[in-house]
Write a structure and sequence with these properties.
Number of domains of chain B: 1
Radius of gyration of chain A: 24 Å
Helix content of chain A: 25-40%
Largest sheet of chain B: none
Distance between the termini of chain A: 74 Å
Structural class of chain A: alpha+beta
Largest interface: A-B, 44 and 50 residues
Radius of gyration of chain B: 16 Å
Oligomer: heterodimer
Structural class of chain B: mainly alpha
CATH topology of chain B: Arp2/3 complex 21 kDa subunit ARPC3
Number of strands of chain B: 0
Strand content of chain B: under 5%
CATH class of chain B: Mainly Alpha
Distance between the termini of chain B: 9 Å
CATH architecture of chain B: Orthogonal Bundle
Number of helices of chain A: 4
Number of strands of chain A: 12
Strand content of chain A: 25-35%
């Protein structure tokens, strides 16, 4: 009986500690997740230096072949790593050429939140690289999300599939404007929605949706995706366009953070 | 955990195990998505410890694993820290006082705690995303998360029994 009382007291003390820590540590826990993110960050850059020490075998020929095999394997790892790096830099170069006003920081996806159903992920670039909260995150195919939390060497990205993100966007053909925001049902098919459309919109299947850039958070003209269909909300019968991003967001392995662009922080009226 | 020989090394081993799980918790590509979900390894670790440790150890493990899961997910401490602390209290208490402490009852409690914790998470999510969206997410992601988390908890239960010296 006494043991049960002690256990209960222990639980109550733990719950109070957790709650108090939770309240006072709100927004100050970045160093903990940052520290744990250093390991995946290290693993992702370790492959090039992967090498093991040779065994001392009795047979000279066997030792020589083993050594040669090891060298070839190390070279292959180096080659594959370089090839991956080259592909990443080429995409980065192409975007820099197309949009010279964007300051980009390329980064690899080092972690994916197992508890987030909208595929948020962590990239291996942080405040030390000039990344800050609110920065848009893109790939060579278009916008994929926004930095929602920046730590020193890593940053958490909320994807455009999440309802938490609201992005001003418009149809590049008809200039019909709205707000891009995800829903649970659409996120299952790697799709998002262009909501708050007017009744008389003339959006059609296949139209390209791009960012408005009027809020100063996103640069103007970043591709968000392609319209799959125009549907009506079951709650209030307002029209919305189902938009399919150009990237499969659940499978993205590298991305680029837009750390600066012309017009950043400037609120403008849309043309 | 009974006061067995080598309690300190056992606790150190447990701490190393939890640290390793925490480090690899969200590592991209390690746990591919299966049927729309991925296992919550920290929850699986905390629940498996609860089934073979004494109440204080179990509550501390639950609070720590939960706090880490919360920090990795939202940057703050909240739902999982409280939920896994409560599970860390309830499982050993039920196992020692209400149920026959054997393998089957331990697994039954781990499974029940997994279902309750993940379901409660989606109920809490409903306040952010709305009940309709949360129900869709639960159906397509939550159910597979329950199965995968429980599946991950079973080998961890055996590992923790080994580490904590037999346990139940």
């Amino acid at each position: 009986m006494r043991g049960k009382g002690n256990s209960l007291k222990f639980l109550i003390i733990t719950l109070i500690t957790v709650t108090v820590t939770g309240v006072f540590a709100q927004g100050k826990t970045g160093f903990i997740s940052g520290a744990f993110n250093l390991v995946p960050l290290g693993i992702s850059s370790l492959t090039a230096s992967a090498k093991s020490t040779p065994d001392s075998a009795e047979n000279d020929e066997l030792t020589r072949l083993k050594k040669e095999n090891e060298e070839l394997r190390a070279e292959l790892i180096d080659y594959l790593d370089l090839q991956r790096e080259n592909e990443r830099l080429l995409k980065y170069f192409n975007i820099s050429k197309q949009k010279p006003d964007l300051t980009l920081k390329p980064a690899e996806v080092i972690a994916r939140d197992a508890d987030d159903d909208f595929y948020s992920f962590t990239i291996g670039a942080g405040t030390a690289d000039g990344v800050s909260e609110g920065n848009p995150v893109i790939t060579e195919n278009g916008l994929i999300g926004q930095v929602s939390r920046a730590e020193q060497y890593s940053a958490v990205v909320t994807t455009i599939l999440s309802p938490k993100l609201k992005i001003g966007a418009y149809d590049s053909r008809t200039a019909d404007g709205g707000v891009v925001s995800g829903t649970a049902e659409l996120s299952l098919k790697n799709r998002t929605a262009l909501t708050m459309l007017t009744e008389d919109n003339s959006i059609n299947e296949g139209d390209i949706i791009t960012t408005q850039g009027s809020g100063g958070i996103y640069p103007k003209g970043l591709a968000v995706g392609k319209v799959k269909s125009v549907e009506y909300s079951g709650f209030d019968a307002t029209p919305y366009a189902v938009v399919e991003p150009y990237e499969d967001i659940s499978k993205v392995t590298s991305a680029m953070v837009v750390t600066d662009f012309s017009g950043r922080g400037e609120v403008t009226l849309r043309d | 955990m009974t006061k067995t020989k080598g309690a300190v090394p056992r606790r150190i081993l447990l701490a190393i195990e939890l640290l390793l799980i925490a480090t690899l918790y969200n590592y991209a590509g390690l746990m591919p998505e299966t049927f729309g979900g991925r296992p919550l390894l920290l929850a699986a670790a905390a629940l498996s410890v609860s089934a073979c440790a004494d109440t204080p150890t179990s509550v501390i493990c639950g609070a720590l694993c939960g706090a880490l899961a919360d920090i990795f997910s939202s940057g703050g401490i909240g739902f999982y820290a409280i939920a896994l602390s409560l599970c860390g209290y309830a499982i050993p208490e039920l196992l020692s006082k209400k149920l026959n402490p054997n393998f089957y009852s331990a697994l039954l409690l781990i499974f029940s705690a997994t279902v309750v914790t993940i379901t409660a998470r989606y109920v809490v999510n409903a306040f952010t995303y709305g009940f309709a969206d949360s129900a869709v997410l639960y159906l397509y992601h939550g159910l597979s998360k329950i199965v995968l988390t429980f599946t991950a908890a079973v080998p961890l239960y055996f590992l923790n029994r080994l580490i904590l010296g037999g346990g139940r």
